[in-house]
Automatic annotation (TrEMBL):
The keyword Acetylation does not apply. This is Glycoside hydrolase family 65 protein. PANTHER family: GLYCOSYL HYDROLASE-RELATED (PTHR11051), PROTEIN-GLUCOSYLGALACTOSYLHYDROXYLYSINE GLUCOSIDASE (PTHR11051:SF8). Gene3D superfamilies: 1.50.10.10, Glycoside hydrolase, family 65, N-terminal domain. The keyword Signal applies. GO terms for biological process: carbohydrate metabolic process. Keywords: Hydrolase, Signal. It comes from the Bacteria.
Length: 677
């Protein structure tokens, strides 16, 4: 791919989008229907809007309170420190009075830049960062270029969502010797009082010594209400003399800190007193390290941007140093209450296992840290071993609303977790981890499936009364994916025992070898005992081929593909088509693989940046699960990567005719490179 300054104009759902031809940036002019792209660092997510200096929300990772007195847990909205108001010559800068509007996401640096011209008076640009290096904080870097002499007033705001209680909004100037540190702050209780949340913010002026109070612009504190806390300054600018400043904030909670108020102050003070170049260089260097795991597509710029945007989101929603997981919508919204599903283990984990070992380890450690609660759940429902919740939160207990049958009956999640654990070991070859975290969990999962299975009169085993991956069919017996994942988890536990020199429970293999996989008379795999060809929500049977490899003979694989693809509901989630695409690619059928690859995300893209909604008929981005699915097509389909007991092996890669080459960088522990031409 040539690195040029040319601009490619492409059409996305009837909206003109500007795509930088370097494959790293996506830009947009003003559009009628707008879905923002989040900037996130694995701890907080900041969602910009299409109005000057406005952000929609801040999401806090792994910080939950009950959604209502009788409800389940829900991820918290943070106090929004990322809004500014700017006045020029006494007039507020609003969208009605700006021209040359453009917003750009730079995926390489994880910066979101908005630029515009205000009347004939000034050119304005600002970039939002969720700092990767200072993980509870954000940074808004502002530049104003006067086109004539102007007076500027800038106001930084901490907006507290209505759901918070008893906010205490203050402004203080902290001082140590001659160093002064102005801090705007709000501290409040979360919805039902589970957490205390502290948010601090301040201005930074780069051109002067901002620590000397007498050299700073005069700061004015205004408390509009306890929920609206403001700090402002004014400055006269001369024509042609660019003025730069920043607004930085941090939000902390008692989920992570005993004293979130003081800790939020420390983060802001650190950002205030660290030179901008150093602070942002540290952030960019961490993103540069993330991008050592990358996918490069030559010959199709739009596919490159779509794939890289998917990978950007998985990186933005996670951290290798957190031992946290990724919710289906990541840090872009409160959808699905920010809970953790099978979406992580089956869809997002495999690409990250290829491209970033630290993040992959964090995702599996999230589950091992909650093994105790899974063991309690198994006991509570009359089973042995460990039984993981369908929806998980910070506690590791079941967090699914009680009315949703998935929470009580969608049990394949327990096998999905164990499969991810064995795959992590197979790729990492980390024997210490397998001994201390991997096998203890896999053993408990295997014991669960032995106790969960029912022996039939003919000696076979059934798994009864489950919700499968196809959630349109609740409370069925012998669901294909549930049975296939249980078989796989039992077999993997036996292999893990062998690696460690442990004695495997003989019942694991005995049950695994006799769990039913039902068939129609013509040999097509039957989704469940009473399935008769109904429309399905998402891939189920076909998961037995990929990723489970339970169904592997080409004749049955093709029968299953042709039978179930027409039955996928248009209202189902995006990742169903991804499974079909991977399988077709592995069969060497690049035409069908590419068709389904595009179908897995193209109908779900939302203007102007291409954020993914969960389904073609929904509008709830960013759907990180769908990103995981489309990345698996590239890595495990076209790229031919396979996870084996010997590690990562490439088998029969294929290239769609729409691409000139595919390069996979930073693969596995040795960060290998694979190139397909």
């Amino acid at each position: 791919m040539k690195n040029t300054c040319c601009i490619l104009f492409t059409l996305l759902m009837g909206v003109s989008i500007l795509a930088q031809e370097d494959g790293w940036s996506i830009s947009s002019k003003k559009v009628e229907k707008y879905t923002g792209i989040v900037t996130a660092n694995g701890r907080i997510g900041i969602l910009p809007e299409d109005k000057p200096f406005q952000t929609k929300s801040i999401i806090l990772n792994n910080v939950y309170d009950k959604e209502s007195p009788l409800g389940v847990s829900r991820i918290l909205l943070g106090m929004n420190f990322a809004n500014l108001e700017v006045e020029i010559d006494g007039e507020k800068v609003t969208e009605e009075h700006v021209s040359n509007w453009q917003q750009t996401l730079n995926m390489k640096t994880a910066g979101f830049t908005t630029s515009f011209t205000f009347k004939d008076k000034a050119k304005v640009s600002y970039t939002i960062y969720a700092l990767r290096n200072v993980q509870y904080s954000g940074y808004i870097d502002v530049q104003i270029e006067p086109l004539k002499n102007i007076d500027v007033k800038a106001t930084g705001i901490i907006s507290t969502p209505d759901e918070y209680h008893s906010p205490n909004s203050t402004f203080r100037v902290l001082q140590d010797l001659e160093t002064t540190m102005p801090i705007l702050q709000t501290v409040a209780e979360s919805r039902l009082g589970k957490h205390l949340v502290g948010t601090s913010a301040t201005f930074i002026w780069h051109a002067i010594n901002s620590t000397r109070e007498h050299q700073r612009p005069q700061l004015v504190h205004e408390q509009v209400s306890a929920y609206d806390n403001r700090l402002s300054f004014e400055k006269t600018l001369k024509k042609g003399e660019a003025f730069e400043f920043a607004w930085t904030g941090a939000v902390c909670s008692t989920q992570d800190f005993d004293d979130p108020q003081t800790e939020s102050e420390r983060f802001v003070i650190f950002n205030l007193l660290t030179p901008r170049a150093d602070l942002l260089d540290q952030h960019k260097k961490l993103w540069e390290e993330l991008w050592e795991g990358d996918i490069v597509i030559e010959g199709n710029l739009q596919d490159q941007l779509d794939v890289r945007l998917a990978l950007y989101h998985l990186y933005a929603f996670s951290r290798g140093d957190s031992d946290l997981s990724i919710a289906p919508m990541g840090l872009s919204s409160q959808n699905y209450n920010g809970h953790i599903f099978w979406d992580t283990e089956l869809w997002m984990f495999p690409p990250l296992l290829m491209l970033n070992q630290d993040i992959a380890r964090s995702l599996v450690n999230y589950r091992s840290d909650r093994l105790g609660k899974a063991k309690e759940k198994a006991i509570n429902f009359g089973y042995k071993g460990a039984m993981f919740p369908w929806e998980s939160d910070d506690t590791g207990e079941e967090a699914t609303p009680a009315w949703a049958l998935t929470g009580t009956f969608e049990h394949h999640i327990t096998a999905d977790v164990s499969i991810a654990f064995w795959n992590y070991y197979r790729v990492s070859q980390n024997l210490d981890w397998l001994k201390s975290k991997g096998y203890p969990l896999m053993k408990e999962v295997a014991d669960y499936w032995v106790s969960r299975s029912t022996k039939n009169d003919d000696g076979s085993y059934s798994i009864k009364n489950v919700v499968g991956a196809n959630e349109f069919a609740p409370n069925v017996d012998d669901n294909a994916f549930t049975n296939g994942s249980a078989i796989t988890a039992l077999q993997f536990a036996t292999k893990a025992a062998g690696v460690l020199g442990e004695t495997a429970n003989p019942k694991w293999n005995q049950v695994a070898s006799k769990i039913r996989i039902l068939k129609f008379p013509d040999g097509t795999t039957k989704e469940h005992a009473t399935y008769e060809g109904e429309i399905i929500k998402q891939a189920d049977v076909n998961l037995l081929t990929y990723p489970l490899n339970v169904v592997s003979d080409d004749a049955t694989v093709l029968k299953d593909l042709k039978y179930y693809e027409p039955k996928l509901s248009p209202e189902g989630p995006a990742m169903g088509q991804s499974v079909f695409a991977v399988i077709y690619a592995r069969l060497g059928n690049t035409k069908e693989a590419y068709r389904l690859f595009r179908r897995s995300f193209e109908p779900n893209k939302r203007p102007p940046f291409g954020a993914l909604a969960e389904a073609a008929t929904s509008d709830n981005p960013y759907f990180a699960t769908g990103a995981g699915g489309m990345l698996q097509v590239v890595l495990f389909g076209f790229g031919g990567l396979n996870i084996t007991n010997e590690g990562i092996i490439q088998k029969n890669p294929v290239l769609p005719k729409e691409w000139k080459s595919l390069t996979l960088k930073g693969i596995g522990p040795k960060k290998d490179t694979y190139r397909i031409e």
